[in-house]
Amino acid sequence: MRLPSFGGLRTRLVLLMLLALFPLGLIALWQTFRVVEETREFSRQVMLDMTAAAAVRQRELVQQAIGAGLGLGVMARFSELDTCRASMAGFLERNPGYAFAGYIPVNGLMECSSAGDLTIDFSDYETMQDAIDRADVYVEVNSDGAVSGEAVVVVSVPVFDADTLLGFVSLSIPEATVKSKAQASAVDRGFVLGAISTSGEVFDIEAPDTGAAQFMPADIDPLEMVGRAGTTFVAPDTNGQARLFSVASTAADSYVVVGSWPRATLIDDGSWVRVMTPMLFAVIMWVASMLVAYLGLNRLVLRHLRELRSAMRQFALGERTMQGLTLEDAPNEFKDAERAFNRMALLITEAEARQMTDLHDKEVLLREVHHRVKNNLQMIASIMNLQARSARTAEAREVLSGLQRRVRGLATLHRSLYTQPETSQVDAHDLVGAVVSEFSAMLPSRDLTIETDLASVMLYPDQAVPLSMWAAEALTNAVKYVGRNGTDAPYIKITLTHDGAGDVSLMIENSTGTPLVESTEDEVESSGLGTKLMTAFCRQLEGDVDVDDTNGAFVHVLRFKVQGFTAASAKSETDASVAA
After folding, report:
1. Would you say residue 530 lies in a domain?
2. Are residues 358 and 371 in the same domain?
3. Domain at 122, CATH number
4. Residue 398 sits in the same domain as residue 455
5. Exposed (0-12), middle (13-18) or buried (19+): which is 22, by Cβ within 10 Å?
């Protein structure tokens, strides 16, 4: 079994955490928190139980009223009006806890009630129509009873004949009777018990003389409180004091009972000192241990990571003169990372040095190849020139002269490749300019001028060769057929443009009219070889040609798109075979 090394990062961190994070501090914090939460939960549960107990007593009172209403409904259904009125009045005498009893038919005209011969029309009352639509037991709170004139809880019990609704027996319970059913002496301990009807009306069940409304939540609508039955929460009351509220439903869910208790009673009779002292001690222990752990991690880990990151950034930015990375007093794991980084930097530096050497050798070799190819092509052109001088016929001299011109065009391309910094591409500006310079010596008249406007376009040889050859053939035709249009001076214009999106246009324009020299075109040239070559070069460039011979000028325009080396080389081989 391998023993852990005291130089390892894992061992150091374990020892540091054992010294810094004392479990007793965490246990004390957890236990204190649990005690506080249990105290709070107990206070909440006590208040919810008290509110629920009050709701049970209210439910019993309403249930008794529902039972009485069912009996009175049977009586009212089968009795005469006088008998019905006497029965209602007798019910109130035997049950002094009720303020009113009456039977209201569905037409809303109440004639049978404990008020004797008093007749009241409820047909226009909104609550009457709601009761008819509900056709069920309905309990509502009325702060101003229609008959009693006092705050009452009205219990309406429907009366049926089979499935047909005949009317309602309405019993009114005074608010004083409702309050008397609540638990006594709770107000002395700050407990307030109120109620909220389904219409959002607040009324007292057990509260100080100022009323229960001021002990209700200030920022919560009473109608929203109706939907919170069975919950407990803390909120400020209308006096701005934080209180604990519990909401319980009542019979028929016609209203809710709301209990309100001072928040100070939630935790240790409002004494926060005894609660916060052990919690504060545990928090101080935790913060101190975290501080020690942070300082230890910064010493053991973070500073080494910063040094390693700095070295990696410098190396990534191209810094190769730096000495090897050295991490002082680092754990074994970081020492391994230090050795790995130094080894990696050494290998990459050596590989880059070899790559730069190979690249330099390749560039030198490529320039030498282009130089030798240029020299060989110039030698071939010189031999053709000697052969042309000894030719006996004009036809032979013309053929050799055309071949010599085309070989020199290729030599010009290779000269541009090895004289420019970029050996894989050539600037079309320099290439076309060199072709124009070659033809300057062929001008048939001193009055003839050549104007150039050449943009800089970098091309690979697969496009540069056909472009220079096409330009040479087009310039040959322009020089051969340039003319004077009246008194205007003859001219040749060469324009090379590039739109920046890869589209290139080469335009060669010459004036037409009276030829400057007599034509010496022989059968070889009249055979159309130059035109065939220009067509083949255009195919290699994947371009198109436009010709315009109007307004005293002959315009030849070649348009093509700059391509990459791979696609262009594969295409150029095919087009070259077609041209041959």
Report:
1. yes
2. yes
3. 3.30.450.20
4. no
5. middle
Six token digits for residue 504: 């290139």
Q: What is the pLDDT of residue 364?
A: 72
| Burial group, residue 301, by CB count within 10 angstroms (0-12, 13-18, 19+) | middle
Pairing state between β 112-113 and 100-105: antiparallel
Does a structural domain hold residue 435? Answer: yes
Token pair in block for residue 542: 């994947």
CB 236 within 8 A of CB 243: yes
CA distance readout (Å), 70 to 36, 63, 235, 265, 368: 51, 11, 42, 44, 119
Task: Mark which of 392, 423, 454 sits at the end of a domain.
Answer: 423
CA–CA separation, 446 vs 444, rounded Å? 7
Domain count of the fold of the chain: 3
pLDDT in tens, 443-467: 766 678 889 999 999 888 888 888 8
Distance CA 341, CA 12 (A): 23
Confirm whether 287 is domain-assigned. no
Looking at the structure, tell me whether residues 474 and 449 fall in a common domain: yes
Q: Could you say which of 150, 177, 204 is where a domain stops?
A: 177
Which string of DSSP letters, residue by residue, matches 298-361? IIIIIHHHHHHHHHHHHHHTT--SPPPP--TT--HHHHHHHHHHHHHHHHHHHHHHHHHHHHHH
- Going 423 to 429 to 430 to 436, the CA torsion angle's sign is positive
**Is 124's pLDDT higher than 80?**
yes
- What mean pLDDT is reported for the chain? 76
Joined tokens for residue 475: 């310039």
Per-residue pLDDT, 454: 92
Residue 326 has phi, psi (to 5 degrees) of -130, 120
> Is the pLDDT at 187 greater than 50, yes or no?
no
pTM of the model: 0.41
481 and 563 both lie in a single domain: yes
User: Strand ranges (DSSP E) for 175-206?
Assistant: 192-197, 202-206
Q: What's the DSSP call for residue 183?
A: P
Give the domain CATH number at 544. Answer: 3.30.565.10
Q: How far is CA 31 from the centre of its chain?
A: 42
Query: Who contacts 370 (Cβ-Cβ below 8 Å, separation ≥6)?
Result: 414, 415, 417, 418, 423
Same domain, 343 and 466: no
Claim to verify: residue 348 and residue 479 sit in the same structural domain: no
Helix, coil or strand: residue 579: helix
pLDDT for 570: 40
pLDDT: is 277 or 267 the higher one?
277
HSE-CB at 162 with a 13 A cutoff on CA atoms is: 1
Residues 471, 506: contact at Cβ < 8 Å?
yes
C-alpha to C-alpha distance for 569 and 424, rounded to whole angstroms = 13
Query: What's the domain range around 330?
Result: 323-423
The two three-digit tokens of residue 373, written as one number: 């190819």
Q: Does 63 reside within a domain?
A: no
- What is the dihedral sign for C-alpha 438, 441, 443, 444? negative
Q: Do 386 and 500 lie in a common domain?
A: no
Helix (H) or strand (E) segment spanning residue 577: helix 565-579
Is 137 within 8 Å of 158 (Cβ atoms)? Answer: yes
Q: Is residue 475 domain-shared with residue 443, that is, in the same domain?
A: yes
Q: Which residues contact 30 (CB under 8 A, 6 or more apart)?
A: none
